[in-house]
Amino acid sequence: MDKTVVINSVHTDSVSCIKRVCPQTIITFDAHPDFFHWKNLDTIAAVSQLPIPEKVKTSLFRASIMALLRASFPQSQLISVVPEACIITNFNWELQQKSWLGINTRRKRYRKGDAISWWNERLRTLSIEGVTVPPKPVESLISIAEGKPLVFDIDADYLFELTRECHTPAAFTDVPIPVDGMPQENMGSTRDILQLISLEKPELVTLSELTYCCIEARNEHLMHFLDSLEKIGYKIEKGTFYNDDAFREILEIKSSFDNYCYHRPYSEAADDFLRAYLDFFESKGIK
Predict the structure, then answer these.
(1) 109 pLDDT exceeds 70?
(2) Does pLDDT of 68 surpass 80?
(3) For residue 227, what are the CA distances in angstroms to 8, 81, 232, 234?
(4) What is the Cα–Cα distance from 192 to 155, expressed in whole angstroms?
């Protein structure tokens, strides 16, 4: 198989591309932990089989990429690479969500270690290894893969040069745990990823979550990244694309479902979520 880069609009659509390779190791780069359904792999499998529109599945799984990868590749080594500052930001967001919902979070003061423990606990449940790059250097990922074929799965919001061109860019908040450093210091970079790709030579690189406008306008940072990959022997392919209006519809489906669940007594049990999906589709008549 030729070494290939496949670009998709939505991160979840990268999974079907990865299935072509049957990788022993997947290293996924993201500015968001995206481990919704981390306790419910059965839900992922069950909903995947439902006769519902693909855009609905895409929407509902978009924040579940870690569980979706584990459910799809149960025997593969999975490594999640997220900047430490982004883990803290997402932990802050979850604390704020709990506060808005009136959930007692037990602690009155939070430390950076709480955020990292929160992330690692979920990854361990999914048998996924976590690496914080940065602040750890990108060199810490060299030779971490246990076997080939190797896949790099990149959500473009991980990359400082491209995150503002994504549908949901990386963002940093300072409550209740402050994030240290300037934004550029807190993010991955195209230079570092190119260096890693040239050394590790993954069979497949997937790139996702860029806006259609960014791709059509041939954003200079994106073009430099793709041109550099072509120069080291990668073929560039377009995968599944949504224009920006269609992508907004995908986000609205997910937002509507979240609001629907907040007002109903569904627990995190897999069968309850499955029932919630079915109830939601029936009530909205989504086609």
Answers:
(1) no
(2) yes
(3) 17, 24, 9, 9
(4) 15
